[in-house]
């Protein structure tokens, strides 16, 4: 069943190109982005003036990633909220608010309650869900299904990548409805998304290198993760994977925050994973991260750098270099997350833990 793998998670990591392709399939037709179920009028979609993404855990991280794309494409403010916080703080919602509820299971209690609260306040709710007919999509005004297939491992992998892709489709659907992108631009963005399964397939060639690295750092006390821009939520996701699977202290930071506290944590030999933006993207982001890495390396950190292939500037600062294919900046999380999933799984396995069923966790959290 595990397709010859030691654990399901590795099988599911390798299924990610397919999960992405299946999630995108059929959503661009006749020159338009199409949702699965739309019980909101086109006019209502056009009138949206604010977006909230509500979710928990990895699904929340997929929303943090999507914020960069949706704001950029749609010129709409996007807030990303932990579902468990959302309804207790009296968020400002009305009929021009679109609440995007992201949930693999579609049954997460906090996310479901956030959906109910949003609808009571007359907001429109769009569900991004991996489970056909689950409660969250049933109670929503629109639905976009991710087609990652059943995810057995408690740690989300292929569902997370599929959530990012689906959230991006939501962004493109909004840009199309609002006219902030011309039809040919929407088509181009969709084509870029369609090229991602091949890019993820390529990044899977790093699995052996990353597993080997995982075995070598498995006895570390803690691991830190740093990123900027879309690399920041990737850092959060990498840390979550490591906490839940390897029971290790792991934290993700925005690299710009280093000097505001976290740099005090750096000590000799501490592994720090850095998610580098493309050197061909925004040069300022790249050069700031290079200087962050040199600072932490100078303080003794063991730097593990995820960088675009051919990024030579970063090489001198990388104790370990994991190369990922060149892709557009906004889509980089779809490739940069993959080595972090493998790293967490392999560290957990080396420490003797059950990668598919980590302690104290359930696949679907149906109590608040
Ligand atoms: O089913 P959901 O997407 O609503 O689940 C949300 C979280 O419970 C889930 O992503 C959790 O954080 C995973 N174990 C992370 O790997």
From TrEMBL:
Catalysed reactions, as listed in the record: D-fructose 6-phosphate + L-glutamine = D-glucosamine 6-phosphate + L-glutamate
Under which name does UniProt file this protein? Glutamine--fructose-6-phosphate aminotransferase [isomerizing]
Catalytic residues at: 363 (for fru-6p isomerization activity)
Domain SIS as annotated: residue spans: 41-180, 213-358
Question: According to its UniProt record, where is this protein located?
Answer: Cytoplasm
Complex and partners: Homodimer.
Q: What biological-process GO terms show up in the record?
A: carbohydrate metabolic process; fructose 6-phosphate metabolic process; protein N-linked glycosylation; UDP-N-acetylglucosamine metabolic process
| Broad enzyme group | transferase
Report a single Gene Ontology molecular function: carbohydrate derivative binding
Described by its record, this protein's role is as follows: Catalyzes the first step in hexosamine metabolism, converting fructose-6P into glucosamine-6P using glutamine as a nitrogen source.
A GO CC annotation recorded here is: cytosol
Q: What is its EC number?
A: 2.6.1.16
Which keywords are on file for this protein?
A: Aminotransferase, Cytoplasm, Glutamine amidotransferase, Repeat, Transferase
What gene does the UniProt entry assign to this protein? Answer: glmS
